[in-house]
Amino acid sequence: MKTIKSNIYQRAKILVSIAFLMFQFSNAVSQDKKAIIDLQFKEKNDQKFITGTAYDFENDSIGAPIEGIDLFFYVQRTFSLLPIGDRFSTTDENGEVTVEFPADLPGDTEGNIQLIVKIEDADDYADTSATKELRWGIPTILDDSESKRTLWAAGANAPISLMILTNSLIVIVWGIIFYIFFKIYQISKV
């Protein structure tokens, strides 16, 4: 009885694995179309707009605009991508999506940000992205207060008086320990 259950379990496991592989293969085959994303930038009355246009890309030439595909707009941050605009930005009949750029987004020291527009998990098209560096962010001013010698700074930037105090305490404690061992050694010689 136990071997029949394990045999059925093994066959079910194999069937699930085969079904998973077939699903993955069908997704890879269905996403054989390529797309290309064109980006345009406009500024109007202190507002900044990004227009992404998705085109069909076949035989090394740009084809017709793609209607009804989701474009995802991101800004590169330190550890991940920050989504901007609507969660789902679907292209219209001209293959275009327009998103307003946030006015309060910090950039680097010069105000540069890296904009990334992606087509992700589309049924008929492979994942595609377009990247552009813009000077639309707010310039970030670096704060040097962390590199100064303060009590809450890292050990390398600790106040000199604190370093002298702790090191002298350590030397005094070890001096007492060595003095005790020296006295014990003198007592044992007598």
Describe what this molecule looks like in 3D.
This protein is α+β, with helices and mostly antiparallel strands and 190 residues long. It folds into 3 domains: 1-30; 31-134, Immunoglobulin-like (Sandwich); 145-189. It has 2 helices and 8 strands, in the order αββββββββα. It has helices spanning 2-30, 160-189, and strands at 34-44, 47-58, 61-65, 70-76, 81-90, 96-101, 113-119, 128-134. The strands form 2 sheets. Strands 1, 2, 3 and 6 form a 4-stranded antiparallel sheet that branches. It has a 4-stranded antiparallel sheet with strand order 5-4-7-8, with no helix packed on it. Strand 7 (113-119) and strand 8 (128-134) form a beta hairpin. The protein is flat.
